[in-house]
Amino acid sequence: MTTTQTASAVATGASMPKTRSHDEHSTTVTAGTSGVTEPAATRGKTSIADVVVVKVAGMAAREIPGVHDMGGSLSRTIGAVRDRVPGGRPNVGRGVKVEVGERQTAIDIDLVVEYGVPVGDVARDVRENVIAAVERITGLEVVEVNVAINDVHLPDDEQDSAESRVE
Fold first, then answer.
1. What is the pLDDT, as a whole number, of residue 93?
2. How far apart are CA 50 and CA 31, in angstroms?
3. What's the rounded Cα separation, in Å, for the pair 68 and 60?
4. How far apart are CA 121 and CA 50, in angstroms?
5. How confident is residue 90, by pLDDT bands cut at 50, 70 and 90?
6. DSSP per position, 15-26
């Protein structure tokens, strides 16, 4: 719906000036229509913020076996500090960038995979799961999902950081 109307204006049939509100961080999925003669399901518009697509894509990528973490090394370091702060919540959107249009979206994902898993298989599974989740939940068409593997998590990485090398 591109016009803003008050309930009294609709009831009296008075016309209101047409205004367009555009948020650079959201997209319109359905434009909708206005008027009492229209079906209830089509009265109004639906817009989806970019952060919604980021979170959906992040959750879908983390569901895939072989994905250890997401994001570049700096964002993972900052995320580790934030996770240790009391009351801090993990950032499910870390490592995800999106570009959202009116009906389509493109997604870039940075991953850290577990050592020993086939990287190509993990990337394919992430791509498929992200596309399915974003299209199902948001209704946007996903035109591409670019997966960048930034690091490999080795089994002994956590042990080295937890133990001191000297006594």
1. 85
2. 17
3. 13
4. 27
5. low
6. ---B-----TTE
List, for residues 31-74, the tens digit of each pLDDT value: 666 777 878 878 788 889 999 999 999 999 999 999 999 987 66
Residue pair 89/55 in contact by the 8 Å Cβ criterion: no
The answer to whether 114 and 77 have CB atoms below 8 angstroms apart is no
Q: Is 111 left (phi over 0), alpha (psi -120 to 50) or beta?
A: beta
Burial annotation 39-55 (CB, 10 A radius, 16+ → b, else e):
eeeeeeeebbebebbbb
Residue 80 clears pLDDT 90, i.e. is over it: no
Secondary structure (3-state) at 167: coil
Contact (CB, 8 A) for 146 and 108: yes
Number of other CB atoms surrounding residue 60 within 10 Å: 25
**Token duo for residue 128:** 């498929």
- Residue 93, judged by CB atoms within 10 A of its CB (0-12, 13-18, 19+), counts as buried
Tokens describing residue 96: 């995800």
- Number of neighbours of residue 122 by Cβ within 10 angstroms: 21
88, pLDDT greater than 90: no
